[in-house]
């Protein structure tokens, strides 16, 4: 698998990862439309799971590709958007908050933060792109980590949390959740829009180099 060395490489990888997901959703839509009533009920429940799976899988894959693209530039933190330096220390801060540490360790961490600007961003901490149960609050955090505008996802919070994730969880836990055929266009179209907007954010950031300090 090729790496996102250039903005063009990244955009191609982002497109390729989205297009097969969209095709699967479109193919399943066609099956639902041709199916009888009994089969439709089963296929619509399967559709909810597939929509969520592609939403989570796409965000995870594409966010990591973007962060890898930036890391391959080998910029120092002092020329990158400040969020990248924050990202570097977030896991350490999280660990520190859950442990009893002395003053010496706290001072050591502060010194590393102060001196960190001269280091190069070379490695992506994949823990920062945690997509399990990708609800609206989680995508907002991932946007923060990547430095993307998150207003679209805030406006789509009800769809993400209720229409998509809550239904998916209910079906995954074996509940007899009914999905109406009238819900199918919104379910598919809005899921595709979520993916497209995230992909556009990645491509625009790479092309415009918004990861650099302004």
Kindly describe this structure.
With 214 residues, the chain is mostly helical. The protein folds into two domains: 152 residues; 46 residues, no CATH class. The protein is 71% helix and 0% strand. The chain contains eight helices and no strands. The longest helix is centred in the first third of the chain and has 37 residues. It is elongated. The model has no long low-confidence stretch (mean pLDDT 92).
Order of helices and strands: HHHHHHHH
**What is the tally of beta strands?**
0
Low-confidence segments = none
Beta-strand percent range: under 5%
Number of helical runs? 8
Shape: elongated
Structural class, please? Answer: mainly alpha
The main β sheet shows up as: none
Cα(first) to Cα(last) distance is 33 Å
Helix content: over 70%
Overall pLDDT metric: 92
The protein's oligomeric status is single chain
What is the domain total for the residues?
2
| Rg over C-alpha atoms, rounded to the nearest angstrom | 20 Å
């Amino acid at each position: 698998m090729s790496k996102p060395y250039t903005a063009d490489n990244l955009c191609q990888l982002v497109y390729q990862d989205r297009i097969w997901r969209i095709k699967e959703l479109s193919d399943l839509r066609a099956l639902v439309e041709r199916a009888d009533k009994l089969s439709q009920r089963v296929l619509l429940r399967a559709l909810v799971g597939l929509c969520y799976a592609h939403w989570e899988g796409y965000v995870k894959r594409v966010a990591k590709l973007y962060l890898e693209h930036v890391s391959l530039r080998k910029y120092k933190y002092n020329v990158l958007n400040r969020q990248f330096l924050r990202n570097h220390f977030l896991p350490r801060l999280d660990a520190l908050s859950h442990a009893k540490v002395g003053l010496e360790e706290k001072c050591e961490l502060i010194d590393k933060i102060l001196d960190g600007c001269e280091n190069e961003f070379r490695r992506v901490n994949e823990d920062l792109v945690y997509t399990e149960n990708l609800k609206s609050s989680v995508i907002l955090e991932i946007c923060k980590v990547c430095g993307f505008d998150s207003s679209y996802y805030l406006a789509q919070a009800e769809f993400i949390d209720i229409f998509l994730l809550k239904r998916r969880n209910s079906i995954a836990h074996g509940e007899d959740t009914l999905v109406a055929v009238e819900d199918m266009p919104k379910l598919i179209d809005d899921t595709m829009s979520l993916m497209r907007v995230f992909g556009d954010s990645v491509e625009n950031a790479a092309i415009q180099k918004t990861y650099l300090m302004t």
